[in-house]
Amino acid sequence: MRAVTYLFVACLTLTPAGALAAGDARSDAKAQVDFGISVAQKGLWKEARYRWERATEIDPTYAAAFNNLAIACEQSGDFESARKAYEKAVELEPNNLQIKQNYDLFKEINDRTNRAPDRQ
Amino acid sequence: MTARTALRIASSASVAIVLAGCTTFYEVPIETPIQPKLDISSFQRVLIAGFISGGSDEVDANLETVRLLRSQLRTKSQLRVIEADVLPLQDVANDQPRAAAGDQVTADGPAALPDRIRDEKDLQSYERVFANVDYWKRIGEEFQSPLIVTGTVLFVPHQRSGFVTSEREVYDRFGRRSVVPVRTYMERKGFILRPKFVFIDGRTGTTLYAESFREEILYNAQQNTPALSSYFELMDRLVPSFLSTLSSQKIKGTRVLLK
Fold first, then answer.
1. What residues in A contact B258, CB-CB < 8 Å?
2. Is the ipTM of this complex over 0.85?
3. CATH code, B144
4. Would you list the DSSP string of B7-60?
5. Closest to B26 (Cβ–Cβ): which among A41, A75, A101?
6. Cα distance from A68 to chain B (closest Cα, Å)?
7. pLDDT digits over B213-251, tens only?
8. In chain A, domain spans
């Protein structure tokens, strides 16, 4: 039993401070994401965008925050920011099907708007 | 700590990890605004002047396109739609002096315009009418300098045969249903619609913007679909793109928010 206790103490000692800080950052970012979702569901997209921007600043490894930010950018017609946010979300979680699906739907609209016309 | 207790703790931990991995998501409706491709803030009125059309005899693509675009713009644009007779642009192109339209007159004389427009090549020779700045300026003055929409519309019958992949339901000996792709050789017929919309500044007679589209539809060879319904089906696909040139549009959709 004493050996187990020593092991536990050793683990705690060796845990990098950065990891704990990252955990704090994620929970702070998550709070922003949650609030953003609740206001977006009420149609307050500007506030939601602000919250998700904050979340991505707090935790730049949080794929869901980038995904949500991309959606808010789409809703406001800011396609360039939406594309960047989607690309970051996909980069962070390449196997997340929901992010991929959102990104595909966005690309469909973006391609349609950017289709090169016969300009005179 | 017994081995059983340790196992129980480990299994609880793994369940917790799996649950944490299952991201919570919320489907939300969104409306994506699309900015107009053309700045039309200096125009209050729009004249759908007419189109040079060809292809199928079953549909008067000039008249139908004018009617359809006018009705769409009336409801989905801020511009006031001018009600006027459709311009007989084919006759205008025939009558106008070649030099005025920017054609080079050779020693053999300019090439005559085809009487009947059957394909894109025939249609191309008529396109010089859009470069006749004086003509469009005159039309603009007549209607108090509106934005003029004109162009060409080719609506041609089309046939194609080849392998088509479809899905078929199959049941195995246990009665389980599955869907398998099946490739079948089919003869199909339909139509191709190739409109080109030309936007002209009624104050100067110059072309502001032009955009071409191509849509096709194919049916089973046994199916008898009227040409006019095919025309409307194909135009339905293009109208949002046409409208997005003149006015901002909102595309409705859904996205998934993640926690």
1. 33, 63-64, 67-68, 96, 98-99
2. no
3. 3.40.50
4. HHHHHHHHHHHHHHHS--EEEEEEEEEE--SS--TT-SEEEEEEEEEEE-SSS-
5. A41
6. 5
7. 999 999 888 888 899 999 999 999 999 889 988 888 788
8. 2-114
